[in-house]
């Protein structure tokens, strides 16, 4: 907030509760928006998510954006022991149940917004028709252009971009590869990378082409150029995710955040 950023995105995997974390962060700030990127719909039933969304929006004066997604089969079944179902149909049913779930608490002044994790055309179409928009993750400006074409001009397009403030190609790509290994085996990302024109070899080897397509690395100007490329392709909002020299996401690169603050 003090750096001037408008929104902070927080994830959900197997760590802290995004709802509790968002509530605490909203209580400690006055202008910063909080967005979940993303909350896994398999972790809570639709009415619980609606109640959390309305409560956080009402108590923060409308500074909460709900981002939800279907995650990946290996995480839902392998980690949580739940049944992973057809992604688009499951998300549609979840959104429709949220819409009709009862809520007796004080309503927010304005209806809170929901965006969904969307990569392929069918999920992007659902994002446009059943929510405020989409939050694509681990993609590229070309994917952003495709997403905007699919969704049309109205819906929000809030894209994530991993950034590495390092101009040495070997160091930057080494950090990127260490990070990308976390995601390499997740099927929804792999399918999207193939859809983007990358090959199985690119993905399996984490080739220079793969890294340069999906990561923004280099100088401040280089990273700003990538941000602008997303904006020119139709993004309304670019969520920056700094990656440090070891490929870690959990350790904030404050120098990078300060340098990119606008």
What descriptive keywords fit this protein?
alpha/beta, nine-stranded parallel β-sheet, 262 residues, 12 helices, globular
Structure description:
The protein is of the alpha/beta class. The protein is 46% helix and 15% strand. Strands 1, 2, 3, 4, 5, 6, 7, 8 and 9 form a nine-stranded parallel β-sheet that branches. Helix 2 (46-60) packs across helix 4 (87-100), helix 5 (121-130) packs across helix 6 (141-151) and helix 6 runs parallel beside helix 11.
Number of helices: 12
Please tell me the CATH architecture of the domain at 7-162 and 217-243 by its name: Alpha-Beta Barrel
Q: Please report the first level of CATH classification, the CATH class of the domain at 7-162 and 217-243.
A: Alpha Beta
Task: Summarize the amount of helix as a percent range.
Answer: 40-55%
- What coarse outline follows from CA principal-axis ratios? globular
The CATH topology assignment of the domain at 7-162 and 217-243 is: TIM Barrel
How does the helix and strand content classify structurally?
A: alpha/beta
Tell me what portion of residues adopts beta-strand conformation. Answer: 5-15%
| Residue runs with pLDDT of under 50 for 5 or more positions | none
**DSSP summary, beta strand count:** 9
Distance between the termini: 11 Å
Average pLDDT metric: 97
Sketch the topology as an H/E string, one letter per element. Answer: EHEEHEHHEHEHEHHHHEHEH
Radius of gyration, in angstroms, nearest whole number:
18 Å
Question: How would the blueprint of this fold be written?
Answer:
Layout: E1 7-10, H1 18-27, E2 33-36, E3 39-40, H2 46-60, E4 64-69, H3 73-79, H4 87-100, E5 114-116, H5 121-130, E6 133-134, H6 141-151, E7 156-164, H7 169-180, H8 187-195, H9 200-205, H10 208-214, E8 215-217, H11 220-232, E9 237-242, H12 254-260
Parallel strand pairs: 1-2, 2-4, 3-4, 4-5, 5-6, 6-7, 7-8, 7-9
């Amino acid at each position: 907030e003090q750096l001037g950023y408008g929104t902070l995105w927080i994830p959900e995997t197997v760590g802290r509760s995004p709802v509790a974390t968002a509530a605490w962060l909203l209580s400690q700030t006055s202008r910063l928006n909080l967005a979940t990127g993303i909350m896994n719909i398999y972790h809570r039933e639709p009415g619980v998510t609606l109640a959390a969304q309305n409560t956080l929006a009402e108590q923060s004066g409308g500074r909460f954006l709900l981002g939800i997604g279907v995650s990946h089969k290996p995480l839902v079944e392998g980690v949580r022991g739940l049944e992973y179902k057809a992604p688009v149909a499951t998300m549609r049913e979840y959104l429709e149940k949220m819409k009709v779930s009862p809520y007796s608490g004080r309503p927010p002044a304005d209806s809170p917004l929901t965006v969904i994790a969307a990569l392929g055309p069918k999920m992007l179409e659902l994002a446009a028709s059943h929510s405020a928009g989409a939050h694509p993750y681990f993609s590229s400006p070309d994917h952003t252009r495709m997403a905007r074409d699919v969704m049309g001009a109205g819906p929000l397009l809030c894209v994530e971009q991993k950034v590495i403030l390092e101009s040495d190609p070997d160091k930057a790509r080494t950090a990127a590869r260490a990070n990308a290994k976390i995601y390499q085996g997740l099927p929804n990302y792999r399918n999207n990378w193939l859809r983007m024109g990358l090959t199985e070899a690119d993905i399996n080897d984490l080739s220079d082409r793969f890294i340069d397509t999906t990561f923004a690395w280099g100088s401040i100007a280089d990273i700003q150029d990538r941000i602008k490329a997303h904006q020119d392709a139709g993004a309304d909002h670019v969520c920056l995710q700094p990656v440090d020299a070891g490929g870690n996401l959990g350790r904030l690169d404050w120098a990078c955040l300060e340098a990119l603050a606008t």
